[in-house]
């Protein structure tokens, strides 16, 4: 299977980001980027004990972290080498997931301008049930 230029670029950006972020190394160490095209990316993550809250379900921090991460990589999928600096981020918690569930994370760059980039994110179980949605605005002027 041939890897698209966008997927190779997004993976390269992620490989450079990961060692610089302790939170990404802890929460997203096992995430797999499965596809990318211009302005979009998709990844999979299995819910592990490190992702759970005191009730034994997906911690909101994980969904917020995924919103941040996927928004940045959706921007990277447009060809930018830097994913920018967050200016606004929102995560809406719709349902939850439990240990062992597979999450599908999709990020879309709605608009990447000269100064700001706007993204939307959806986190769902592999079964299709939406877990969270998000929006993320980043300052991208270089």
Provide the β-strand percentage band.
Answer: 35-45%
Count of β-strands: 6
Topology as a string of helices (H) and strands (E): HHEEHEEEE
The low-pLDDT segments are: none
- Average the pLDDT over all residues and give the rounded result: 96
Structural class: alpha+beta
Fraction of helical residues? 25-40%
Discrete helix count: 3
Q: Enumerate the strands of the largest sheet in spatial order, edge to edge or round the barrel.
A: 1-2-4-5-6-3
Shape: globular
**Rg:** 14 Å
| Spatial separation of the terminal alpha carbons | 34 Å
Sheet having the most strands: 6 strands, antiparallel
List keywords for this structure.
3 helices; alpha+beta; 6 strands; 142 residues
Please give a structural write-up.
It is a single chain. The protein is of the alpha+beta class and 142 residues long. It is built from 3 helices and 6 strands; from the N terminus they run ααββαββββ. It has helices at 5-17, 22-27, 60-76; strands at 32-37, 40-46, 85-93, 102-112, 116-125, 130-139. A 6-stranded antiparallel β-sheet has the order 1-2-4-5-6-3. Strand 1 (32-37) and strand 2 form a beta hairpin. The longest helix has 17 residues, at 60-76. It is globular. The model has no long low-confidence stretch (mean pLDDT 96).
């Amino acid at each position: 299977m041939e890897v698209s230029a966008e997927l190779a670029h997004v993976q390269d950006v992620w490989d450079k980001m990961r060692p610089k972020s302790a939170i990404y190394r802890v929460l997203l160490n096992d995430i797999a980027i499965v596809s990318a095209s211009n302005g979009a990316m998709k990844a999979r993550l299995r819910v592990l004990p490190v992702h759970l809250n005191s009730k034994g379900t997906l911690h909101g921090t994980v969904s917020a972290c995924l919103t941040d991460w996927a928004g940045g990589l959706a921007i990277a999928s447009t060809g930018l080498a830097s994913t920018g600096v967050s200016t606004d981020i929102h995560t809406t918690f719709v349902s939850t997931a439990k240990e062992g569930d597979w999450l599908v994370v999709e990020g879309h760059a709605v608009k990447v301008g000269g100064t700001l980039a706007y993204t939307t994110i959806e986190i769902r179980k592999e079964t299709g049930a939406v877990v969270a949605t998000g929006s993320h605005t980043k300052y991208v002027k270089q």
